[in-house]
Amino acid sequence: MSAEDEARRALARALGLERFAELFPEAFDRARAQAVSMRGKVPGPEGIAEEPAHVYRARPEAEW
Amino acid sequence: MVSEPAWLGLGEAAALIAERMLSPVELTEALLARIAALEPQLNAFVRIEAESALAEARRAEAEAARGELRGPLHGVPFGLKDIIDAAGLPTTAHSKLLMQSPPAETDAFVAARLKAAGGILIGKMATHEFAIGGPSFDLPWPPARNPWNPGTMPGGSSSGSGAAVAAGLMAGALGSDTGGSVRNPASSCAIVGLKPTYGRVSRRGVLPLSFSLDHVGPLTRGVADNALMLGVIAGHDPADPGSARVPVPDFAVGLDHGVRGCRIGVIRHFYERDIEAAPEMAAALEAALQVLAGLGAEIVEIETRPLQEYAACNRVILLSEAFAIHRKWLSERPEDYAVSTRERLLPGAFFSAGDYVDALRARRRIAAEFEALIQPYDAVITASAMDTPPAIDDAEAIARAYSRQARAPFNLTGSPALAMPAGFSSDGLPLSLQIVGKQFDEAGVYRVAAAYEAATPWKDMHPPMAAF
Questions:
Q1: Does A38 touch chain B (CB under 8 A)?
Q2: Distance separating alpha carbons of residues B32 and A4, to the nearest angstrom
Q3: Is pLDDT of B126 > 60?
Q4: Which of B36, B167, B187, B195 could covalently link to B384 via disulfide, CB atoms 3.0 to 4.6 Å apart?
Q5: DSSP states of B333-397 as a string?
Q6: What is the dihedral of CA B96, B97, B99, B102, to 10 degrees?
Q7: Helices marked H in B70-121
Q8: Residue A30 burial (C-beta neighbours within 10 Å; 0-12, 13-18, 19+)
Q9: Residues pairing with B124 in the sheet
Q10: 3-state DSSP call for residue B434?
């Protein structure tokens, strides 16, 4: 088994996706690369205390 | 009996039924005859409810004869995307994983509202699997096809809803929209699709894809029908944690007000700089702006963040939440998904909790910025699709089309957004535009859409294969 296969298997085990990675190793690798790309395009926070949208509400001042 | 009931709008049919000039039974029979003729080519349905629809139509006819009208859709058939529960029927999500699921015990909030208004459920509509896959040939049901050219995809994920409405198999259907899935089929099939404001319509009884981005919205052939259908399904539902306790206005109030004196923003950089739309699409958008200017609107170019920032933020949130929903099946039964579905879902496994929280932080900031930006305007116009619908069996072209769109920003901001026809390409495929409004101002969106619709011929054009 190559080092690449070993790394994939370890990652899949950590994610609970051993079966997926075993059946579809190329799809598993592609998904990982896509996630890295998407993550890199999200604008970072403006400050350490910036709040997220929790349960997102379009008009927070309204009664819910 | 009117001559061609199948092409009547929701409101027109309901009015004729109320005046006893149209029989709900004859209307339902006419639609079922069209379904029998066209469904073999369109695959718009997961399930056709012919028998129960006719039984409901007979009941509606008897009630109408007694002057007892249930509501504004009395005796008029509609369809539900098959991720929306209807009591007594299974909800399959077009998936092998749910094809043996037991019947739903109760109606989804929106299904109950449509039935209470007198609507008749005529079928459960095809969808891209779990509202995220592409058109797939490895599922228990074939993918829906586009009536304007059955070799092309009808958009998705509310694919069957779009195809059926465009082909005159029903006048209205519901879809869901997490990254554009109501507006994509509307754009692809030359009909009207609205994603309402987040919180406007309850998602109770709708299979989730992404809790914080899912919306339910109507697909119809005209703007007035869309406003009518939204009026029926809108309203607070304490059982949906995202449901807003806000008044439900008459969404049709401004339909005949025109746009003279309106200020309309246009986000050109989405389709000129961030992504370059196909020339015919860009030309259709400019022509639409000219129409609105000719009607007396002031068109003002506005600028927001790059489309790619909205898209990335939407994808990280959507896929993180979707992975939480699908984790067990992706772990234990990945081979039971369509190839395209499992490949679209899996990136969600690789985001950390920190990635998700950072995307939610960005979302809050971006949504506030956008809402402030558009306050001076009555509505904003931009592209929906950048291209005409791709071939249904060209996976590469389909993946490209999904990445070339400007719908996802408004799932992120929660703004109401409507897609509608803006003409046809040289090869006869639909071109489209998108109209976006301030939060909870669907009426403002409809006002602009109605003015454009009235000034253009697109609403009355039918797909050649369905023009009978």
A1: yes
A2: 56
A3: yes
A4: B187
A5: -GGGS-HHHHHHHGGGGG--HHHHHHHHHHHHHHHHHHHHHTTT-SEEEE-SBSSPPPBTT-HHH
A6: 170
A7: 109-116
A8: middle
A9: B47, B80
A10: strand
Measured CA to CA, the distance from residue B266 to residue B382 in angstroms comes to 6
Question: What is the phi-psi region of residue B396: left when phi exceeds 0, alpha when psi lies from -120 to 50, beta otherwise?
Answer: alpha
What is the C-alpha separation between B53 and B11, in angstroms, rounded?
19
What backbone phi and psi angles, to 5 degrees, belong to B215? -135, 155
Average pLDDT over chain B, rounded to an integer: 97
Residue ranges per structural domain of chain B: 7-466
**Who among A15, A52, A64 is closest to B244 (CB)?**
A64
What letter does residue B104 receive in the DSSP assignment? B
When pLDDT is cut at 50, 70 and 90, the band that residue B12 belongs to is: very high
Give domain limits for chain A. Answer: 3-41
Both ends of chain A: CA-CA distance in Å? 55
CATH superfamily, domain B7-466, is: Amidase signature (AS) domain (3.90.1300.10)
Nearest to B44, CA basis, from B189, B178, B187: B189
B42: tokens are 């369109």
Q: Cα–Cα distances in Å, from B405 out to B4, B159, B181, B400?
A: 36, 16, 11, 9
Those of residues 348-377 in B touching chain A at CB distance below 8 A are 348-351, 355, 357-367
Q: What percent of chain B has pLDDT over 90?
A: 97
Per-residue confidence (pLDDT) for residue B133, from 0 to 100: 86
* Å between B222 CA and nearest CA of chain A: 27
**Residues B206 and B83 sit within 8 Å (Cβ to Cβ):** yes
Closest CA to B4 of B161, B119, B190, B168: B168
Dump pLDDT digits (tens) for B161-186: 999 999 999 999 999 999 999 999 99
The pLDDT tens digits for B431-446 are 999 999 999 999 999 9
Percent of chain B with pLDDT over 70: 99
Please name the member of B311, B316, B334 whose beta carbon is closest to the beta carbon of A20: B334
pLDDT (0 to 100) of residue B1: 47
**Cβ-based contacts of B309 with chain A (< 8 Å):** 41-43
Instruction: Please give, rounded to a whole number of angstroms, the shortest distance from the CA of B331 to a CA of chain A.
Output: 5
Task: Look up residue B355 and give its amino acid.
Answer: D
pLDDT digit string (tens) for B360-401? Answer: 999 999 999 999 999 999 999 999 999 999 999 999 999 999
Q: Provide the residue type at B42 as one letter.
A: L
- Taking residue B59's Cβ as centre, other Cβ atoms within 10 Å add up to 15
Is the C-alpha dihedral spanning B1, B5, B10, B12 positive or negative?
A: negative
Beta-sheet pairing, B430-436 with B379-382 = antiparallel
Sign of CA dihedral B195, B200, B205, B209: positive
β-pair type (B120-125, B77-81): parallel
**ipTM for this prediction:** 0.89
